Amino acid sequence: MKRDFDRIRHLLLECEASPSGHYMLPSDMGTFDKYQLDKMIEAGLITRKQSAFGIMVKSKYRTKEGSADVVATEEISLTWKGHDYLDAVRDNDIWEKTKATVAETGGNATIEIVKSLAVGFLRKTISDKTGIDV
Fold first, then answer.
1. Measured between alpha carbons, how far is residue 25 from residues 69, 82, 86, 114 in Å?
2. How many CB atoms lie within 10 A of CB 44?
3. Considering only CA atoms, which of 34, 12, 9 is closest in space to residue 23?
4. Alpha-carbon span 98 to 92, nearest angstrom
5. d(CA 123, CA 116)
């Protein structure tokens, strides 16, 4: 399975948009997204932890007194490195330029190269607007 930088960016944006700063992963998340999350953890972009989300009554197995199980869920949150990466690739124009450049040079790039390209385009945009080299 391959990394998908578009999907990684999307998952980072979803996580950041969470009001609590912790994004609850859907229980029906597919293998592809789980793989992307594993790669994001390896890259230091996110942390993932399991947490107790709530109580679910299992009526099918209910006894006279009732029966309930704690439903365990997973949540992710951005690391400092994840925020930095997302800030570099957040702008749609910069993201499209970054992807196009990678595609033009064979389509292969590490996450560091993707971030460096995006930061380069971001610096140029800021410099063009302000006249200040950053």
1. 19, 17, 19, 25
2. 13
3. 12
4. 10
5. 10
What distance in Å separates the CA atoms of residue 53 and residue 22, rounded to the nearest whole number? 12
The pTM assigned to this predicted structure is 0.79
Helix, strand, coil percent values for the chain (each to nearest 5): 55, 20, 30
* Pair 119, 88: CB distance under 8 Å: yes
Q: Are 43 and 94 in contact (CB under 8 A)?
A: no
Handedness of CA 13, 19, 23, 26 (dihedral sign): negative
Give every residue of the chain whose pLDDT is below 70, as ranges. 51-73
Give per-residue pLDDT as tens, 28-63.
889 999 999 999 999 999 998 876 554 444 434 444
Largest CA distance in the chain: 74
Residue corresponding to tokens 């999350």: 37
Question: How do beta strands 46-57 and 23-24 pair?
Answer: unpaired
